[in-house]
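Could you please consider the sequence and fold following this short note?
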Amino acid sequence: MRVDLERVAKDTHGYVGVDLAALCTETALQCIREKMDVIDLEDGTIDAGVLNSMAVTNEHFQTALGSSNPSALCETVVAVPNDSWEDIGGLENVKRELQETVQYPVEHPEKFEKFCMSPSEGVLFYGPPGCCKTLLAKEIANDCQANFISVKGPELLTMWFGESEANVREIFDKARQLAPCVLFFDELDSIATQRGSSLGDAGGAADRVLNQLLTEIDGITAKKTVFIIGAINRPDIIDPALLRPGRLDQLL
């Protein structure tokens, strides 16, 4: 067999029937394009020898996957990053801890189950702007071959009552559909400050968004491989509830 179906299955998380049909069509077209130089387009038929030499391979599938996405992602910015650890200089301790916290549970779930270990739901990156927080999140998603959804905290806030919380629910729903998925919240300190501390927030919008965020994190089950990474500049203003065990309890 020239196609590794198990590999294709791992690379098509979140795909539905119509997505798989489109992927197969594009894969077949990739195979045909390779033979275009020996096909006489002016002739109404194709030589039997050319047809018999055509065969779909893993390379055709991988090329087609590069230009296809699940239909669930039509309204969401998502990607499988292609960054590597070599793109990040230093930070060896952070890299190792990130691999142990995120990558190992995805690649070796049977070991965690054997020893009754519960993997962490997420980690919190903290540090000044420009210290590779976003790049680290992309790299670990690439190593896990997981979908990557990036959201900036302020983008979730709107002026309409209840819409900000709905935005949080929608993001988590998308992540569950696309599991395994790394859900990255950049500038999380803009929506995760200690509740009651936003003096200018008369309507309590920031507090409601944080409550919804905590509810969604608690609602992630072990069956859905969704890992949450938050990036902040000031850990001292973060609401302690977000750092409790089972939430973003690992600070890097």
Notes: Residues 85-251 form a domain with the Rossmann fold fold (CATH 3.40.50.300). The radius of gyration is 22 Å.
